[in-house]
Amino acid sequence: MDEPTLLGDFEIHGHFFVPESPQQQVGGTLTYSRLNGLQLDLLNTLSSTRPNSPAPYPVILGISRDNQKITLFECLMRKYSISFGGGSHTAPSILIPTFALIGGHFPRDSGFHMIDLNTTSLNEWLSLRFYDSEFISDSEPAEWARISVHLPSIPARRVDSWEGSIEFGFNVRGPDVASADKIDVSRVGFLRFKADTDRSVDDILRFAWSASKLLSLLIGSPSVLRMIRVRQRDATPITKPVYMYFNLHSDVELKPRHAGEMITTFPQLGDEFPQIIERWSEVEAKYIDATNLYFSVTHSNLPYVEVPFLFLTQAIEAFHRATECNTYVPNDEYETYRKSISGGGSA
């Protein structure tokens, strides 16, 4: 599998099983596309501890043909078959995982303390020369070794109720990790968050979405998530990275932006960036509904013109509700009107 990206497609063939029955392994294919998201096609149906639930499989583990470990969380049943009679009959099924972790096996309550994010236009927004930074190798030796070039950590007192620090850096690929001047410059910028306490995959996705929205505002155009890489606290420097996938469902046209076309760049912000992070966490918490609705329009090509119009109208209403204290009716009369409209009483 090539360098993982949320904006690409992949197909992984292997065997899958539930943690409670590791001996019952079923052949299948895990596919991902930017538009359609994750899908697991199984040649037979796995046993489930909650068969009547819309998400009958809290965790499914897999091993690809090249021995890569896969963890799938909260798998929804999309299609299943029923096999009648004995013999070798099979019952194929199709599942929709909510999250996928490529690179390890993890329980549902796993926590991670370090998260790397990459978004579109992040490289240009950073506008940094890699040779001005410190080279720190954080990957195992390989033919094309990866070097992380970290900028000084920026303390963040509150990022989506997180405590930790933020760094920006580059992944630089090259044939010789010992000599910076021999590096074939092929950079992928990333934002790294180091949390003081371990965070769940749900928390990580919320943080990633928050970072994508902030970068979109600073750049002036959609900055779509391209990569989410996580690491546990006890992982060693040579531990292979774990990549996180979710159902992005975005086909928005990605137009490359030059730094000169952006509202602002990282070097222009300078020492003000920590204050921007802190202020953004406060603003987003207050206007969470409005920002989610607005960026749902900018980060995807929604069908029909009525859908984005409805989302934008709701975003304006949510913003007005959060900024204005006046209401249509007094609070003590609201319940009466609500019951009348819902059929629970008469006004």
Question: What would your notes on this structure say?
Answer:
- By secondary structure, the protein is an alpha+beta fold.
- It is 24% helix and 33% strand.
- Helix 5 runs antiparallel to helix 6.
- The radius of gyration is 23 Å and the shape is globular.
The proportion of residues in beta strands is: 25-35%
Shape label: globular
Tell me the radius of gyration: 23 Å
Q: In angstroms, what separates the terminal alpha carbons?
A: 63 Å
Give helix and strand order, one letter per element, not per position: EEEEEEEHEEEEEHEEHHHHH
| Tally of helical runs | 7
Secondary structure category = alpha+beta
Strand order of the main beta sheet, please? Answer: 1-2-3-6-5-4
Can you give the mean pLDDT? 78
Residue stretches low in confidence (pLDDT < 50, at least 5 long) are: 135-147, 174-185
What composes the largest sheet? 6 strands, antiparallel, barrel
Number of strands: 14
What key phrases describe this protein's structure?
347 residues; alpha+beta; six-stranded antiparallel β-barrel; 33% strand; globular
Topology at a glance:
Layout: E1 10-17, E2 26-33, E3 37-42, E4 57-64, E5 69-80, E6 93-102, E7 112-119, H1 122-126, E8 134-137, E9 145-150, E10 154-159, E11 162-174, E12 187-199, H2 201-219, E13 225-231, E14 242-246, H3 266-269, H4 273-286, H5 288-298, H6 306-323, H7 331-342
Antiparallel strand pairs: 1-2, 1-4, 2-3, 3-6, 4-5, 5-6, 6-14, 7-12, 7-13, 8-9, 9-11, 10-11, 11-12, 13-14
